[in-house]
Write a structure and sequence with these properties.
4 copies of one chain form a homotetramer. Chain A has 154 residues and is an alpha/beta fold. The first copy, chain A, has 5 helices and 7 strands; from the N terminus they run βαβαββαβαββα. Chain A has a 7-stranded parallel beta sheet with strand order 4-3-2-1-5-6-7, with helices on both faces. In chain A, α1 runs parallel beside α2 and α3 packs across α4. Chains A and B meet through β4 and α3 of A and β4 and α3 of B.
Amino acid sequence: MKRRCVVAVIGAGDAPRAICKLAFELGREIAKRGAVLVNGGRTGVMEFAAAGARKEGGHTIGILPGYDRSAANRHIEFAIATGIGEARNAVIVASADAVIALPGEGGTLAEIGFAKKFGKPIVALDSWPEIEGLRRAETPVEAVAIALKLAAAR
Amino acid sequence: MKRRCVVAVIGAGDAPRAICKLAFELGREIAKRGAVLVNGGRTGVMEFAAAGARKEGGHTIGILPGYDRSAANRHIEFAIATGIGEARNAVIVASADAVIALPGEGGTLAEIGFAKKFGKPIVALDSWPEIEGLRRAETPVEAVAIALKLAAAR
Amino acid sequence: MKRRCVVAVIGAGDAPRAICKLAFELGREIAKRGAVLVNGGRTGVMEFAAAGARKEGGHTIGILPGYDRSAANRHIEFAIATGIGEARNAVIVASADAVIALPGEGGTLAEIGFAKKFGKPIVALDSWPEIEGLRRAETPVEAVAIALKLAAAR
Amino acid sequence: MKRRCVVAVIGAGDAPRAICKLAFELGREIAKRGAVLVNGGRTGVMEFAAAGARKEGGHTIGILPGYDRSAANRHIEFAIATGIGEARNAVIVASADAVIALPGEGGTLAEIGFAKKFGKPIVALDSWPEIEGLRRAETPVEAVAIALKLAAAR
């Protein structure tokens, strides 16, 4: 079995509506392109990205901080209850072939740090201008296209 | 979306052929019953259980100790690269609704310990007579039936 | 700097008085012998072992499941806030040169499993007769003597 | 027992000499002020900070990524073998009352992200101008003074 490409979408758990809309479009595009979505399984960017992916019939994996799988949002198909708290951010990034970043705070910054450490391609969609070494995209379609291309080239 | 029941199959990574055959039958039965298989994603019991589940079209999740997703056996559909080493045993158990144990060694014993700690139903198939508090099954079909019944009752 | 030998004492967080007394004596003996005590940093066996070690001026390290260092018992000198939940049991065992087990439940069983997996010497003090491959001791002094001897031989 | 204040010093494992010298001075000052040093236990900034702290008789804790305690640098008094890989960065930050950052790369960025997430005070010594919300210091003495003041105010 050839395993599908896996893309992580990271960003704030309490993102404003406009960012959530971008997350939804990212999820849709990831699924349309046949890739799997992985993220933290909770609210905000995580929930809308998963909703978008499911709308197109894609697979969604949520890497939860706690032990309660029912804490996953309802668009998560496979809920992994790590119980390892915020350290689960490293697992999200390690389990992806590429990372797409939306605006976020400390947790998202930690994920970007891990993506750099692990040498994973990172595409910033309208966000994180202060961090060097990220690829830049202006639309969800462009972000996913870059992410999949970089993932394939690894 | 109602999430499917998830069953962990645990046991030795270097199990003899007879045990691997039981693992294969467990995987088949889990998939036939519509449940998802989760395990450590590597060799032996993990590989044969995943092969059985995939043969019946079931979903298989491998919770790997390292960062390399390609270390998963080829029957793992979704490879989670935790990078947290043997501590990933806690994640396997926490991510399951029930655990079915085959013969194993220290890693399997740790998983049984976590299953007790987390209050997850544990079904021992022809194994672990020395550990109290496990349910006993004599065939893969019986083990899966008990596991699913106990999982549903939680 | 030659690092001191580190001994883990494991057992129930809600152990009865007689077991706690054994834990206290284990802690005392570990400190008297110049070794460092590591454990889960909480109550019961963990608290009494740490109290014993501190009484003799020994160092005590508590590997906590959560993020709150103030959750450590007051005899823990160095509180490590792992935030990784019960998976911290693997860290306790990995950070020790030898493990001494008192009666316990699932968490203790997980630690014994990890100790076997990691090839760490395990001394059972009046406990765990059902588990093979452990060394047996009848008094705290004997348990520590065996643990230090096995640790030195690694 | 009142527990001592714990300060994490974070930065590159392959830092140039000038940065290592700053790390050494940070370690010295942390120990002089009676605080405990925690870090990742390896090379570069981690090694020099620990050397400085030990020179002043301070305690040093190294939170290692792997299972081999002998991988700690020789100035680490207490080596915690987490085995959880880079996720150990979350443990370093969670175990500190304040964080002092020197220049670094992905791993250090992940630690800064976690420190923000956990609400820990972060003092940047001549580094990370691009990250908002950090306190700035120009000398090791000033950095430690700010870190201890912020830690005490929590």
